Amino acid sequence: WDGLFLFTVRLSPVMAEVVKAAGHGVNIIGICNGFQILCEAGLLPGALMRNNTLKYICKPIELRVENHNTPFTRGFTPGQSVWMTQGNADGNFVADADTLNAIEGNGQVVFRYVDNPNGSVNDIAGLINEKGNVLGMMPHPDRAFEAELGSADGAILFKSLIATAIAA
Q1: pTM for this one?
Q2: Which of 73, 107, 112, 162 has the most CB atoms less than 10 A away?
Q3: Which residues, in sequence order, are CB contacts of 142 under 8 Å at separation 6+?
Q4: Distance in angstroms between the alpha carbons of the first and the last residue of the chain
Q5: Looking at the annotation, which residues are catalytic?
Q6: Are 104 and 46 in contact (CB under 8 A)?
């Protein structure tokens, strides 16, 4: 059913507006299923498949910041280790070799798993489009917002976006 849902969302009239906004440089983030939808809509390369364990994964996960020079990641430092929550069954990022070479060569990988939980190729946990204004990521920064909940690292992402908006 997930595939049918994503296909339906991709064809939803609102997605035409999301694609148009992205083309005009509006910053867009897709978290978890949102990442899948951005890929299905062609805003990001690749696809998200069933986890290689074929099981739902929900746990704190360590990520490494690969690209800190985006509107979403300016508050991080290069190579910084951060903790967020993984919560998915379809978080296995896949792409063909040419697409992977382009993603890696263009610096589009924003986050990598330190200990890959789902089989994502090249340990990719999050990536941006070539223009740098569309981010898709499987881990949840929205579930890592306060230290009392285990990590406040996700807040850095949202603070980066706010700082970008204020500076504009």
Answers
A1: 0.91
A2: 73
A3: 31, 154
A4: 41
A5: 32, 140
A6: no
